[in-house]
Amino acid sequence: MNTNKPQILLSIESALVRLGIGGLFLFETIIIIVLPPYSLKSLIKQVAFIGARSLSVIVIAGLFVGMVIALQFHDTLVRFGSVSLLGSAVGLSLIRELGPVLTALMITGRAGSAMCAEIGIMRVDNQIDALECMAIDPYRYLFAPRILAGIICVPILTTIFILVGIFGGYFVGVVLFGVNPGSYFQGMSDTVLNRDLFMGFSKSLVFGLLIVWIACDKGFHLHLDKHGAFGSEGVSRITTEAVVLSSIAILFTDYLLSALIL
Amino acid sequence: MYDSNIKNIIEIEALNTRYKDKQILSDISLLVERKEIMVIMGHSGSGKSTLLRHMIGLDTPVSGSVKLFGKEITKLKKSNLYELRKHIGVAFQSGALFSSMTLQENVELPLHQHTKLDHSTIRIMSRLKLELMKLTDYEDLMPAELSGGMLKRAGLARAVIMDPKILFFDEPSAGLDPVTSAELDELILQLRNALNMTIVVVTHELESAFKIADRITVIDNGSQIITGDKEAIRKSTDPRIVNMLQRKAVNKNIDADGYLNKLTRN
User: Fold this and answer.
1) Angle between the B119-132 and B103-114 helix axes, to the nearest 10 degrees?
2) What is the CA radius of gyration of chain B?
3) Which of A206, B4, B87, B111 has the fewest CB atoms nearer than 10 Å to its CB?
4) Helices marked H in A51-193 — which ranges?
5) Does B56 touch chain A (CB under 8 A)?
6) What is the mean pLDDT of residues B69-92?
7) Under a CB-based contact definition with an 8 Å cutoff, are residues B15 and B27 in contact?
């Protein structure tokens, strides 16, 4: 160990090394995704895990988020006498920001954490070594279907979140507060541009990749944990780290992509 | 592709490995002949499981060579290493079964991944192996529902499902009652006799080792003390071997200053 370097430099160095390992992990998984053979069965299993099993939570979250946005915007817009803009306000905020970000955060909590813990336990219990010994590439068997499923499911779940949110907003604005239904939808279709849809879609795509990448990488490299914790403590630590890191990465990338596209 | 008729199916030469500053294995050299049962013995922490991990290419040594079927595995490309591993089976200490799959799915996994056999053929093949391990009645259970001995037998069934030329078994007797442990020893002998496998077993159980071994290697503190047949081990005058055979605790000379330092260090 080089003791001449100050602690801060050592920390930066180890963070960069870890980032490099994570980058190589993603690179190798993407190469595997592109190259045959493809396993449709394991992809479907992961789509069911990340997608289908997250559906109820996404629908409930989308509904209430749409309702609360309509509630807040209605209260604000009434003060300016522009209630007719309610539809555009709800639509734009859901499509550009809240839909992709909140969906990604929900999937991180529901599927990302479970995935990280599962792979971490596989590492602790030698199951990953067992895969290697059976000549089964963990990148192909475990990670490729998960990453692909993340990229497929998160945009679809985001779309569902947005649609349900728009319906929730409609319920509060039109049914409860009596806003004209025509102006709710007309306002939305007038102001939402293709660029907004592109922004929402590209964000959800990137978030899908980020969530699964971080969860799988953290679990797979549990033994590289700098605190040296293995066993159940190690699994709990990396799962927490994966959720925190994913959430920060999602919020950071959200700003970055917004700034790039706007 | 791999010459399984080669005389020395495993060749290890001058193997050295260390973790951080600690030397784990020093200068290990070992030849395992075809159809031989080689037992690697040593007390906990002696480095025997690390040696096993090097033999199957899960760890890379600092120096030295490890050859399986005459191929240097430390220098093999990932794809070639996977190809070679299709001819070996590894049974882990804990079984290392996939907890999300039933016993049968676990055993069938290598066949599904590496062969194009149809589902019913795979089922018959997995039942053959499960029957050999007396596990057919439990094929639909999840690993969490199995006892320790069953988990080991299930791990063994999965390890031999592809009829490997070499079988590695990590601690078959650890944590098992004497009867179950004896049953596993019988199974290991059966596998060698019926399927002509070369078997490497890592264990610290004397009785089990002497029952199954053709030759025994004893490792202590990462160093190879002796490799020889059972008679050679029994006749050895090395105090570490004598202590091991007589199940005596090792009396290391106590360094008073070192002992005090250990107690008072921060």
Assistant:
1) 130
2) 20
3) B4
4) 55-80, 86-92, 99-107, 113-124, 127-133, 138, 144-170, 181-191
5) yes
6) 91
7) yes
B125, HSE (Cβ side, Cα atoms, 13 Å): 20
User: Look-up: residue for tokens 């260090």?
Assistant: B265
For B86, nearest residue in chain A (alpha carbons): A135
Cis omega (within 30 of 0) for bond into A37 = yes
| 8 Å CB contact of B82 and A122 | no
Axis-axis angle for helices B119-132, B148-159 (nearest 10): 130
Nearest CA in chain B to A127: B96
Separation CA A192–CA A213 (nearest Å): 31
Of B82, B99, B155, the CB nearest to A137: B82
Residue ranges and CATH numbers for the domains of chain B are 1-87+205-250 (3.40.50.300)
Give the CA radius of gyration of chain A: 21
The token pair at B206 is 């004397």
Q: How far is CA A169 from CA A84, A86, A194, A244, in A?
A: 13, 9, 21, 30
| Domain ranges across chain A | 41-261
Do the chains contact at B98 and A136, CB–CB below 8 Å? no
